[in-house]
Design goal:
The chain has helices at about 1-10, 60-70, 75-85, 105-120, 140-155, 165-175, 185-195, 200-215, 225-230, 230-240, 245-250, 255-270, 280-285, 290-295, 300-315, 315-330, 340-355, 365-375, 380-385, 390-410, and strands at about 15-25, 25-35, 40-45, 90-95, 100-105, 130-135. The protein is of the alpha/beta class. The chain has three domains: about 1-140, no CATH class; about 145-230; about 230-315, no CATH class.
Length: about 425
């Protein structure tokens, strides 16, 4: 604490101010200062935003800067800072080296460094030399850092969004821990700080666990973690696919190891053009021919197969097949809006299909048997419920039918 106070004393008085900020459930007292972007601050190699970098590891500040330049939104933020300057302070914490470690705001620091190197003369010389920073106190723990980052990058918006893979990795490592770092908080607490539901947090944690298995499977790749990040939306969709998803996530059951291996090879071979293709994994698995096509490794074949499944599911035949289940669910929910008009509509549908199936010859034999069973089951209440017009219509139809039978019937007396 004394070292940090001494360091702050060295800064110009005009460059310091005290701010009070609520982070999580606690209000902190922070010093906001201006720091030299090259001499006073150091970039954080564990910055979550760098987890999808092209590089496997970082050995220098130059590596870190290069990785940040490749991060989404970099060019737009650089243009904004060059035109109107730094709008939001970064967060730093003093290290044993005497420098301040950038825990939040590394992209802004990298941009300011780039612009400072660019403008060595002229009106912009020295303009980008300093960065506004809030200094976190020594007692600000790793757990507090996680709460800070969750509030900024998940509750936040725009270029500060992390993206789904980084969110999932952050969630997993926060609630499950990582080598040398125990869990920092449970899912409920993290969800509260993220402004998300606990089920949302649980789903991303589960998806990241599945992605870790993918990394193990493709460990022969140059950068398996990068590939997992690139394919994360597909992996996430696969992990929650109906029926197949739970089987793939049953890591302790060797019965599904081959299935998981096949699916991971499909992802590596890019058979899924986009994550939506993976929504039909159950249908693909149930179709032997479709599954063989996926296992062949043909690029984007899942997209073609998905369109075929969609066409089938939207066909009249598929819709008719779904009617019994749809009606049953409605009745089980207590829907009592069905009436005779619905029955008449369904009967009309049946008549149309029968005319098509038995083109030219209406299946009277089946219809007559059904009519006979209906009449034989009639009760006193059923008869009393009929209108006179209903009875007259029945008698007229029966009279017409009797005339046909008398004239054309065979073996009927």
């Amino acid at each position: 604490m004394a070292e940090q106070d001494a360091a702050l004393e060295e800064l110009p008085t005009t460059a310091k101010r005290t701010v009070y900020e609520r982070i999580g459930t606690k209000e902190w007292v922070l010093e906001e200062v201006q720091l030299d972007v090259s001499d006073d601050v150091a970039l954080w190699a564990d910055n979550p935003r760098l987890q999808t970098s092209l590089m496997e590891g970082f050995s220098s500040e130059t590596d870190l800067e290069e990785a940040l330049r490749l991060s989404p939104g970099y060019d737009g933020l650089r243009k904004s800072i060059q035109e109107i300057g730094q709008m939001q302070s970064i967060y730093v914490k003093r290290t044993s080296t005497g420098k301040f470690l950038v825990l939040e705001g590394a992209t802004r620091v990298t941009i300011l460094r780039e612009l400072d190197r660019k403008f060595k003369s002229g009106k912009n010389e020295g303009v980008f030399r300093h960065v506004n920073a809030k200094i976190l106190p020594p007692e600000f723990s790793e757990r507090d850092v996680a709460i800070l980052l969750a509030g900024i990058h998940v509750r936040g918006s725009g270029v500060r969004d992390w993206g789904r893979y980084i969110e999932a990795k952050f969630i997993y490592e926060t609630v499950a821990g990582r080598p040398g770092h125990p869990p920092l908080m449970n899912q409920t607490t993290l969800a509260e700080n993220m402004g998300k539901s606990e089920s949302w947090v649980a789903r991303l944690k589960s998806a990241y666990e599945f992605a870790l298995k993918f990394v193990e499977h493709i460990d022969d790749e140059v950068n398996p973690r990068k590939l997992a990040a690139e394919k994360f939306s597909v992996l996430e969709e696969i992990s929650k696919a109906r029926v197949v998803g739970p089987q793939l996530r049953d890591f302790d059951n060797s019965a599904y190891d081959e299935l998981r291996s096949d699916v991971f090879d499909m992802v590596r071979n890019e058979v899924f053009k986009e994550y939506r293709d993976a929504r039909f994994l159950k249908e693909f698995h149930e179709d032997e021919d479709a599954w063989d096509q996926l296992k062949s490794g043909q690029k984007h074949i899942a997209n073609q197969l998905a369109k075929q499944v969609q066409d089938k599911s939207s066909s009249p035949k598929a819709r008719i097949a779904n009617i019994p289940q749809t009606v049953r669910r409605a009745i089980e929910r207590g829907d009592d809006s069905f009436d005779d008009e619905d029955i008449a509509s369904l009967q009309q549908t049946i008549d149309l299909i029968e005319d098509k199936v038995h083109e030219g010859v209406h299946p009277y034999r089946l219809a007559i048997r059904k009519a006979a069973r209906t009449l034989n089951k009639a009760s006193r209440a059923d008869v009393q419920d009929l209108d006179q017009s209903d009875i007259e219509e029945l008698r007229e139809a029966f009279g017409y039918f009797e005339g046909l039978v008398g004239q054309y019937g065979q073996g009927v007396s």
